[in-house]
Specification:
By secondary structure, the chain is of the alpha/beta class. The protein is built from five helices and five strands. Strands 2-1-3-4-5 form a five-stranded parallel sheet, sandwiched between helices.
C-alpha cells in the first residue's frame, strides 16, 4: 500500500506539481490549500506525512504542526515544513519537536523524495 501524503500549499501551481511528482513516485497524495482544509481531511485520509507550507492564508504551517503534535492519533504523522522565505528556515529549525524535516523552496523532486524515504523508513 502506498504511503499517504497530505500536501498543504496555497499556490495552485505548486500543489499541481507536487501532486504529479509524488504520484509518479508511487505515493497516494491529497492536496489542500489551507490549514482548515487540512484539518477537515487529516482524520479520514490518515496521512503518514504532511508536507506543509509555512505561510498559508488562514493560519501558519507552524500552527498546523503544533495541533498535530498535541492531538492524540496524529502525533506519529511526519511533518515536513516548506517555505520560500529564507528567514523562516531559522524558525523551523529552532522547533525540532514540531517538524521532522525542512525544505527551502524551490526544491527538487529528488530532494523531497530523499526526505520522504528517510522519514518513512523510521519506526
Amino acid at each position: 500500500m502506498p504511503a499517504r501524503i497530505l500536501v498543504v500549499e496555497d499556490e495552485p501551481a505548486i500543489r499541481a506539481v507536487l501532486q504529479v511528482n509524488l504520484s509518479k513516485n508511487g505515493y497516494e497524495v491529497r492536496c489542500v490549500a489551507s490549514v482548515q482544509e487540512a484539518l477537515a481531511v487529516v482524520g479520514s485520509f490518515q496521512p503518514q506525512v504532511v508536507l506543509a507550507d509555512g505561510g498559508l492564508p488562514d493560519a501558519s504551517g507552524i500552527a498546523l504542526a503544533g495541533f498535530l503534535r498535541r492531538t492524540e492519533g496524529y502525533r506519529g504523522i511526519r511533518i515536513i515544513a516548506m517555505s520560500g522565505d529564507p528567514e523562516q528556515e531559522e524558525l523551523f529549525r529552532a522547533m525540532p519537536g514540531e517538524y521532522d524535516a525542512y525544505l527551502q523552496k524551490p526544491f527538487t523532486t529528488r530532494d523531497l523524495i530523499e526526505i520522504l524515504e528517510r522519514l518513512l523508513d523510521r519506526p
